């Protein structure tokens, strides 16, 4: 039986970042991803420049989309529109996550794709982990376990059951990829705040490069009910506003989360030597509209906590909870102040009026301060 210092399930963002930083400390690390990479993942794939700082490596140009996003255009429920310059990273999750897994491997972690975590059992001096790859079963042993399996969090569920998750449907997200002629600008991320389109945050339009090497527009939204109706209504609005012609939808993709975004037990960092990272820890933040930065930071800090636990001779969760204090506090605060409770556009506008100035100031100062902060002390935007 193979023995490891650290076992990590989930080869997306949190998992490979954790694997890289575990390997850098000389820890024998195994990272497994159930899918064969590159694999598709429904995600807008948009991040802020500090994301690269957290990962600690420069993203190669061929893992990014052709177009650079440098502007945000926000459409408010009262009809007002504002635009501001803001540089963003723009990538597709299939090629990006593959790069991150290979990066962890280059730093010395063992990476297996097409390898599924099945279950664990605690044993003397470690955890026995059952894996399945190509129909073959294998058991390995590890001292520390990181769950980075996203919102379905397979290890968390084995430890905690359904606590922090909502059974059944929890709303859906839908994207259409399309080609068209018209007035949309490829360097712009369009955000439409309107409860007629999206009841969680904003509906979106942006430009992406697909695996065929061509660029496509993406129009998408999230809603608790009737997702097609809300996206079609939003798409009609976009078509009229930007005078789109020759519209041709080439791909549709959907996603439904198993985790309740409002549940106060959503955020859970783990226990003893079982650490949760990224969405598995409940760190996705619908108020900020993103989660990959928190996933990367939590992966990096989980690795650091495991290194510290050996020095301190204490369970890794103690150092991890300490290191994660600010990120957890920010995510909790956003969860409590989120806009999901707004049922009308008037209420949403009032909510945004109250928060926009604060958010603008936060963006302005924190994006500048982040340049001087260490990677582990980055403050999440917006
Ligand atoms: C529609 C949508 C749009 C989004 N847009 C953005 C955005 O623009 N920017 C942003 O920052 N965030 C965005 N997010 C959030 C972002 O996708 C997540 O926060 C992020 O992917 C979390 O990363 P993670 O590594 O924690 O988990 P995930 O990305 O969910 O990855 C989990 C991995 O674990 C693997 N896995 C699962 N079970 C097993 C198992 N049993 N064994 C082995 N492997 C397993 C999965 O295959 C997967 O690869 C978006 C989310 C959605 C739903």
Folded structure, characterized:
By secondary structure, this protein is an alpha/beta fold. The chain folds into two domains: 3-45 and 92-167 and 264-341, FAD/NAD(P)-binding domain (3-Layer(bba) Sandwich); 68-90 and 171-256 and 346-382, D-Amino Acid Oxidase, Chain A, domain 2, CATH 3.30.9. Helix content is 32%, strand content 29%. The chain is built from nine helices and 16 strands. The strands form two sheets. Strands 1, 2, 6, 7, 8, 9, 15 and 16 form an eight-stranded mixed sheet that branches. An eight-stranded mixed sheet has the order 3-5-4-11-12-13-10-14. A hairpin with a 5-residue loop joins strand 12 (203-209) and strand 13. The longest helix is centred in the C-terminal third of the chain and has 28 residues, at 345-372. The structure holds flavin-adenine dinucleotide. Flavin-adenine dinucleotide is lined by residues 9-15, 32-35, 41-47, 116-117, 148-150, 154, 173, 255, 278-280, 284, 290-293, 295.
Layout of SSEs?
Layout: E1 3-9, H1 14-24, E2 29-33, E3 46-47, H2 50-55, E4 69-75, E5 81-90, H3 93-106, E6 110-113, E7 115-123, E8 126-133, E9 136-147, H4 154-160, E10 172-181, E11 188-192, E12 203-209, E13 215-223, H5 227-241, E14 245-255, E15 270-271, E16 274-276, H6 292-312, H7 316-323, H8 325-337, H9 345-372
Parallel strand pairs: 1-2, 1-9, 2-6, 4-11, 9-16
Antiparallel strand pairs: 3-5, 4-5, 7-8, 8-9, 10-13, 10-14, 11-12, 12-13, 15-16
Helix pairs in contact: 1-3, 1-6, 6-7
Residues 9-15, 32-35, 41-47, 116-117, 148-150, 154, 173, 255, 278-280, 284, 290-293, 295 line the site of flavin-adenine dinucleotide (FAD).
